[in-house]
Design brief:
The complex is a heterodimer of chains A (157) and B (289). Chain A has 5 helices and 4 strands; from the N terminus they run ααββαααββ. By secondary structure, chain A is of the alpha+beta class. The chains are: A alpha+beta (157), B mainly alpha (289).
Chain lengths: 157, 289
């Protein structure tokens, strides 16, 4: 078959679709995204996956929800300065990406942004009882709901 | 030969116009930045208003580049429909480099191949998904909307108690213990289970057969046209809130059928206008409950 210019777009489409399928089967990439060829074959990440920041202090662990963003953090956005709001929006943006494709890069990124975000939230009395966090005390967790016939199961991914 | 009949609207609707409207419809419901949306809208409206503009190769190359930037800045991981729009524009841009007398047939071949690849991978994903083939997910969408929404309300109402201990035990939470919990559809409608399971398999079989026919014979045999229409009807029924995707697929159907079968082209044009309108209005299907 002779190559023609009109084949460029379908070939690129084939390349993207193949990569997306392989990534979906070998990693937690949601089939709804990255090209979206597997929409409706799994529950959508926006409602089936939640992303949490786990803060361990004094032998006790507390969870803060990043995706969907905790409603108290959302309310606090109105009181923040532009710089602070920008940091929180970036935090939320990476939270969304993490729910679509949980991986080490987003995990590290979210942990490092959290070091700036948590003091902001403490200063604005959102989480007034927070102590200054350190990287080793922070972990990002993603939970996914799975539909089973009789019940739902929630797994960490 | 094209009919001169005024009712033959396929003679007046060009592929280029349809693609521009499809892009506008899909972009209008996507999370794009304000500036990028304005830029795309400007390009699209200028293409529609100055119709001669949208026949040039540079115009489609520009659209492809803008959509590529859109994909990169939006983050390729998050994108879905934008990819298809990018492939459409790139397809148009590359066919415009062909000699003029070959352009129309090259456009059709390009659209057949894009549609074939998209449907092939949609079928493969479904075949490898136990969720889809068992019919659970279809049931959730068709009968109840997403019952998963109640998970969010559970997290909101129980946030204060979410410590390490009960987060671990959360794996064992029974759905019925969740506040505001709506029972999964398959428990409420057990008689529908077999039907939806069959529907899931039927849609996979129809899509699979369509992919085979598209790659084997293009979309020109009567069987392929029939299967294309059947896949659309099943798609409308099964994936009925995916209006943006349906608009694109029916638009592709129109382009492929345009000079081959006027009656089929009319059906696909009507479908694409319907879905474009629904997408632009951000329509969501009413739930049965």
């Amino acid at each position: 078959m002779k190559f023609r210019p009109y084949m460029i777009a379908p070939l690129l489409c084939l390349l993207v679709a193949t990569s997306q399928f392989i990534l979906c089967k070998t990693s937690p990439l949601s089939p709804w995204k990255g090209g979206g060829y597997g929409m409706y074959t799994q529950p959508p990440p926006i409602s089936a996956r939640t992303v949490w920041l786990k803060l361990s202090q004094h032998g006790k662990a507390t969870f803060y929800r990043i995706q969907p963003l905790d409603s108290r953090i959302e309310k606090a956005l109105a009181q923040l300065s532009d710089t602070e709001r920008h940091i929180l929006e970036e935090f939320s943006r990476y939270g969304r990406r993490m729910s679509i494709f949980p991986n080490q890069y987003y995990r590290k990124k979210l942990t490092s942004i959290s070091l700036d975000v948590l003091p902001i939230l403490r200063n604005h009395d959102v989480f007034a009882y927070l102590e200054k966090p350190q990287t080793q005390n922070l972990a990002v967790k993603v939970f996914e709901i799975r539909l089973k016939k009789e019940n739902w199961i929630i797994n960490e991914i | 030969m094209k009919s001169k009949n005024l009712l033959n609207i396929t003679a007046y609707v060009r592929n280029e116009d349809l693609v521009l409207i499809l892009i506008l419809a899909v972009l209008s419901t996507h999370e794009v930045t304000y500036y990028r949306f304005l830029l795309m809208a400007f390009i699209i409206f200028s293409g529609i208003l100055v119709r001669s503009l949208s026949t040039t190769k540079w115009y489609w190359m520009l659209c492809s580049i803008i959509l590529l930037f859109e994909l990169i800045f939006q983050n390729v991981i998050k994108a879905n429909h934008s990819f298809l729009l990018f492939f459409l524009c790139l397809g148009f841009a590359t066919t415009k480099w062909q000699p003029e007398h070959e352009q129309e047939s090259a456009q059709k071949k390009c659209m057949v191949l894009i549609m074939g690849v998209v449907l092939l991978f949609a079928t493969v994903h479904k075949l490898f998904s136990s969720y889809y083939l068992s019919g659970y997910l279809l049931m959730d969408y068709l009968l109840k909307g997403s019952s998963l929404e109640s998970l969010g309300s559970y997290f909101d109402s129980n946030w204060a108690n979410l410590t390490q201990k009960n987060m671990e035990s959360f794996h064992l939470v029974k759905a019925s213990q969740i506040d505001g919990y709506r029972q999964p559809a398959y428990l409420l409608f057990p008689h529908m289970e077999a039907w939806l399971n069959a529907l899931a398999w039927l849609s996979v079989l129809v899509e699979g057969a369509l992919v085979f026919l598209l790659f084997r014979k293009g979309a020109y045999s009567v069987v392929a046209k029939g299967f294309l229409l059947l896949a659309m009807i099943l798609g409308i029924y099964v994936l009925r809130d995916e209006t943006a995707f349906m608009a694109i697929m029916s638009g592709l159907g129109f382009m492929i059928m345009k000079d081959e079968s006027v009656s089929f082209a009319h059906i696909f044009l009507l479908l694409s206008v319907l879905f474009c309108t629904l997408t632009l209005c951000d329509w969501r299907p009413p739930l049965l409950q």
